[in-house]
């Protein structure tokens, strides 16, 4: 089980992902934009952050950069539908800024859960020194 900060401005997508993650026994903290995510990080220390890229108030790109500066070991997964542009460019940029994985919307649920498991397993190995 992981503690996951889910940052998504689309309420329907946020609710759907929250339900999917909770069904997989993860604890989910939600934020509707990057500013809310920064506030949530002041009161919690999630294992993983999943963030949309195109959001109002603070983009996911800016959020990833800020979170990596403040929490360099935080595992981040970026998701994007791309808006008017192809999401691949945004997702490539998110990975260059420190996202561990990225997915185009609609997100493949099985692939997302697998990525979370792999990131958790990898960070546990780092912590235990294996």
Layout of helices and strands:
Elements: E1 3-7, H1 11-23, E2 27-31, H2 34-43, E3 48-52, H3 60-70, E4 75-80, H4 87-96, E5 101-104, H5 109-128
Give an overview of the whole structure.
This protein has one domain (3-128): 3-Layer(aba) Sandwich (Rossmann fold), CATH 3.40.50. It is 49% helix and 19% strand. The chain has helices spanning 11-23, 34-43, 60-70, 87-96, 109-128, and strands at residues 3-7, 27-31, 48-52, 75-80, 101-104. It has a 5-stranded parallel sheet with strand order 2-1-3-4-5, with helices on both faces. α2 runs parallel beside α3 (60-70). The longest helix has 20 residues, at 109-128.
Describe this protein with a few key phrases.
single chain; 130 residues; alpha/beta; Rossmann fold; five-stranded parallel sheet; 49% helix; globular
Summarize the model shown.
This protein has 130 residues and is an alpha/beta fold. 49% of the residues lie in helices and 19% in strands. Strands 2-1-3-4-5 form a 5-stranded parallel beta sheet, with helices on both faces.
* Percentage of residues in helical conformation: 40-55%
State the CATH class: Alpha Beta
Name given to the CATH architecture: 3-Layer(aba) Sandwich
Number of strands: 5
End-to-end span in angstroms?
A: 20 Å
Strand content of the residues, in percent? Answer: 15-25%
CATH topology, by name, is Rossmann fold
Largest sheet: 5 strands, parallel
Total helical segments? 5
